[in-house]
Specification:
By secondary structure, the chain is mainly alpha-helical. 68% of the residues lie in helices and 0% in strands. The chain is built from 3 helices and no strands.
Amino acid sequence: MLGIVFMIGYVVFPFDLIPDFLSFIGIVDDLMIAGIVVNWMVLLSPETLKKKHRLMR
């Protein structure tokens, strides 16, 4: 739940590491943040859920 709040907060608040008007680089930093949060959510998920969706590493 906390990961979802972080992702929504990052989209809603105007704070941005690299402004989006800088073409490709501005969008890539947003995707990197979203990927890090999703990875963090997967790592914190219960083992049974990881097995069910085949997310074992």
